């Protein structure tokens, strides 16, 4: 399967945490909270109802591993799955770990500016290449440990 425009926009392959036959898990280049991800369907669909049965079935396992990995890396208190699809029409979710206060990673602070309300996507830390690569590596390792 070819990379779709939404995967490319979110930096694939440099930001890729994991990929299954139906989904790609990517680190968001702008981090409203530590470990914010984009979960992109690899099928050529632009409506959630158009996913194949296989993509729906695969989603469960992908979400379980995302939650385990993010709990390890960001110690989230809640997690938000936002399906916005206004700018990027391919089926995808923004996965935003939520927490009170601030989390730190590799010397950078990541506050949750919207806590306890809706996430503030514009109040985000923009990652440089080094910070991106370190966070991708940490999340990839946590993903590997999160296997069912």
From TrEMBL:
<dbReference type="Pfam" id="PF01230">
    <property type="entry name" value="HIT"/>
</dbReference>
<keyword id="KW-0378">Hydrolase</keyword>
<feature type="domain" description="HIT">
    <location>
        <begin position="3"/>
        <end position="105"/>
    </location>
</feature>
<dbReference type="InterPro" id="IPR011146">
    <property type="entry name" value="HIT-like"/>
</dbReference>
<dbReference type="GO" id="GO:0016787">
    <property type="term" value="F:hydrolase activity"/>
</dbReference>
<dbReference type="InterPro" id="IPR036265">
    <property type="entry name" value="HIT-like_sf"/>
</dbReference>
<protein>
    <submittedName>
        <fullName>Diadenosine tetraphosphate (Ap4A) HIT family hydrolase</fullName>
    </submittedName>
</protein>
């Amino acid at each position: 399967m070819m990379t779709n425009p939404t995967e490319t926009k979110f930096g694939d392959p440099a930001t890729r945490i994991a990929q299954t036959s139906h989904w790609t898990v990517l680190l968001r280049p702008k981090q409203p909270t530590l470990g914010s991800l984009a979960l992109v369907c690899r099928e050529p669909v632009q409506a959630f109802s158009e996913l194949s049965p296989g993509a729906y079935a695969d989603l469960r396992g992908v979400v379980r591993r995302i939650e385990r990995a993010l709990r390890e890396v960001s110690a989230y208190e809640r997690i938000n799955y936002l399906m916005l699809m206004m700018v990027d029409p391919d089926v995808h979710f923004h996965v935003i770990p939520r927490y009170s206060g601030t989390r730190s990673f590799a010397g950078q602070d990541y506050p949750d500016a919207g806590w306890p309300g809706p996430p503030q996507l514009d109040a985000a830390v923009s990652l440089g290449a080094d910070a991106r690569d370190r966070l991708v590596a940490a999340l990839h390792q946590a993903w590997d440990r999160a296997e069912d």
